[in-house]
Amino acid sequence: MYLLDVFKLIDSVSSPIVVLTGTHHEDSTIKLFSSHFSNLNVFSTKGSNAFGGVLVAVHKSIPVKRVSRFSNIVNLIVLEIGVNDEAFQLVACYSPPCEPLPLLIFDEVFQCNSNTIIMGDLNAKHASWSKSVENHKGRSLYSWLYSSSCNFSLEIVNKFISTSTRSNATIDLILVPSHMLSTSFAVLPSIGSDHYPVIWYPSLKMSSSHVRLPVKRTYWSLLNRFLTFTTSYWITLGTSMTNSIEFFCLYERFLSLIAARLTFVFFSKSYKPSLPSYLIELIEQKRYCLKLFRKFRHPYFAIVLRTLGNTIRKELFLYKRQSWQNYCQSLNELDTRLFWKKAKRHFSICTPPIEGFIINNNIVFLPMEMCTAARDFYEEQFSKHQNTETSIEIEAAVVDEEIRDELNNNRPQSPRITFHHIRKAISSLKNKNSAGIDGVSNHILKLLPSGHLQIILSSFNTFASSYQTPAHWHIAKMILLTKTKSGIVTLDETRPISLLPCFSKIYEKCFLVHLRKWVDDQGILPEEQSGFRPGHNMAVRLVSMIDQIGQSLSKNTAAAALFVDFKSAFNQLWYFGLWIKLRRLECPSHIIAWLRKYLSGRSAYVEIKGVRSPEFFLFKGVPQGSCIGPVLFILYHYDILDSLTIIHWRHLFADDLSIVFSPSSLLSSSGMINLLAEQITDVLNRLIKYSTTWKQEINLKKTYWTLFHRQVSPRIPSITCNGYTIEHLKK
């Protein structure tokens, strides 16, 4: 193993704490390591043999000190990390195969602080954590872990995961107290050693003394005045330029640059909530008085300091209470949206950032390699559907050719976008200061004066009449979110979110008004569809399902529910199939023309950890992150329930389909359950036929069914479909 490979590995994972065991402890190597990682505090110790030695490197922003009591022990380093209640001990240990484990030293370490983490190459094998043959050291460690004298509960994080390249043994162990346990870890590919590197993500929070957080401040009032001042210039320029797309690109660039010019960044130790000026003045007075007291030690300053402290606490309490009362008074009894908007912040779950991809049983951490892998994966997922020359595909090709000829020979007249449409679309945006990929933020759009909105309105109507839009509106920045709670996932466990230009989203919202009006006027969507429809919500579907299941059980009958999952639902929408369905629905030609322009020529690139992949084309699917994508999806599948029988209760929420089955109460108990299984199999076969026709694959691995009953230990039948066993969930 070369030192350069170690440097490359540590740089790629960006870990704040690094533990190396079996380092040989060469002074020149440790000096080179310390000089390369100047942002790390390096601690090292010698070994008892030529292969021994331990090195621990901790980021300088983390408070750390070496426990002097154990500083002269070979193959062992004990560090105290953090301060106050956050403090814990880290023990890095290398135990040669022929030497006993330092269990007595471990006991002494735990007497100092029970919040202690032990990690390193212990060469201890036991059936409780390793798949290999047990050895004496493993039995000793097992006895120590579960001995009566050991009054602390330690857990092994990386059980049954091989860390040796020579065998399937788990000899590099991470032992943590049970209350500090976090199972988020991964074994990395070997870099030349006979051990695999292990990366662990603990659920610890440590204060930092060196980190400075960036705080952005934009002079919004000055920006608003400057926009008002330049209104006449942009109106004149818009009337003089013949190319509306070129003009609007200049206008977008202007808004982006003026916002960047009036934004300044400074660094702070922490983010603090805003306080009124009188409270800030009181706090400054207290700080000044504290300096005087420390300098002169006069009793007068102690009295003033105590008085100011009590005053500040009282004023803070009154300020918080008044703020809460003002917020409660702003609520409308007939409209609870503001309340739930504030309440949902306490229930939202933040997904961890993606740190690596699992590819062919190896973990990829380098951003460039991650971008390349993600691009290849999603380029294949968004590639053209395979043409199997079925009757529906032949019809789709004919319909596509007919629509193309009609639009080329007679361009339809598009409906006008009004000032009210622009104003309503902008007001519906979240008030975010973060800029989109075009450099324009939602907050800038909300500050635009009426004159600038007229400029946007004129440009949008020109785009709508010519069915042309700026080319960069068709390019999406794709970021990936994990579907699990782990930061290391397979590419199948990622969800692509398309970040689009802000003006592109405004244009979509204006068109969506006309699309929704046509859909609602024609009554196209079934009543069972509750997703992305004003006036419909998921709560109604849930209450309806519970009521239907309760009705079945009240008649002493069994009931079953089938939950169907579509594979990469929004990414698989077939454009040619959409044209067929819109033609069958007699969709106005201007809507079809707009959609063909919106969906054609789209491309995307993946960005991970600041690294951007090359662009790739999107031949199917709708962008996740756009307001029109989900509406197109539910419109495309408006007839999915027609493929099912009407004797079942059906529920749709966007791409989530659930069906409730209720048999006749005249059947026997065993007959009811068998009939339910037959009905579920029949429905699945119908859905598979539909999904094959319209190229919307069903993910049978994530399709489940549940049986509701009042019987004692009934026999649950097995349901299979296309070679997959549909998993039964008890709850």
Automatic annotation (TrEMBL):
<dbReference type="GO" id="GO:0003824">
    <property type="term" value="F:catalytic activity"/>
</dbReference>
<protein>
    <recommendedName>
        <fullName>Reverse transcriptase domain-containing protein</fullName>
    </recommendedName>
</protein>
<dbReference type="Pfam" id="PF14529">
    <property type="entry name" value="Exo_endo_phos_2"/>
</dbReference>
<dbReference type="InterPro" id="IPR043502">
    <property type="entry name" value="DNA/RNA_pol_sf"/>
</dbReference>
<dbReference type="InterPro" id="IPR000477">
    <property type="entry name" value="RT_dom"/>
</dbReference>
<feature type="domain" description="Reverse transcriptase">
    <location>
        <begin position="462"/>
        <end position="726"/>
    </location>
</feature>
<dbReference type="Pfam" id="PF00078">
    <property type="entry name" value="RVT_1"/>
</dbReference>
<dbReference type="InterPro" id="IPR005135">
    <property type="entry name" value="Endo/exonuclease/phosphatase"/>
</dbReference>
<dbReference type="InterPro" id="IPR036691">
    <property type="entry name" value="Endo/exonu/phosph_ase_sf"/>
</dbReference>
<dbReference type="InterPro" id="IPR052560">
    <property type="entry name" value="RdDP_mobile_element"/>
</dbReference>
